[in-house]
Design goal:
Layout (H helix, E strand, L loop, with lengths): L3 E5 L4 H17 L2 E8 L3 H5 L11 H19 L6 E8 L2 H12 L3 E5 L11 H8 L3 E5 L3
Parallel strand pairs: 1-2, 1-4, 2-3, 4-5
Helix pairs in contact: 4-5
Length: 143
């Protein structure tokens, strides 16, 4: 039923619950599991003025964030026994990144944790994914 499953993680305890459910589904369906970690520069770094004709250098902060994301994904992948796992560390807002990765992979399912759902915050990851996903979405009760 599901051949490609995308799951978002930030390394938190609640995200670990979503990854666990996604890995179990991947084992059950023989699916490929795609672990996704989004990262962003600090607001101060993004707001720094640059000349209109100069392409902003991503700088050491972004490189450091990308390396941390890759490291966290590698550790998370180790917990997904019996599943083929691919890792995606991507810059941008988490909800948008998950939707973009799912679109790029023609995913059958996106799995996210429910953190942020109860506050009705604009831009919460599960809300963004649920309203923009190109495929089925499973929101795992993690809070």
């Amino acid at each position: 039923m599901y051949s490609t499953i995308v799951v978002g993680t930030d390394g938190s305890e609640t995200a670990t619950g979503a990854v666990s459910v996604a890995a179990e589904l991947a084992r059950h369906h023989g699916s490929r599991l795609h672990l996704v970690k989004a990262y962003q520069q600090s607001a101060a770094a993004m707001a720094a003025p640059t000349a209109a004709f100069v392409v902003a250098d991503p700088g050491p902060e972004t490189a450091h964030l990308a390396a941390e994301a890759e490291e966290m994904l590698a550790a998370t992948a180790q917990t997904c026994d019996g599943v083929t796992v691919e890792q995606h560390a991507c810059q941008g807002p988490a909800g948008e990144v998950l939707v973009a990765v799912a679109e790029e992979l023609s995913a059958d399912l996106i799995v996210v944790g429910s953190k942020g759902m109860h506050r009705r915050i604009l831009g919460s990851v599960p809300n963004t994914v649920a309203h923009n996903a190109p495929c089925a979405v499973l929101i795992v009760k993690t809070t």
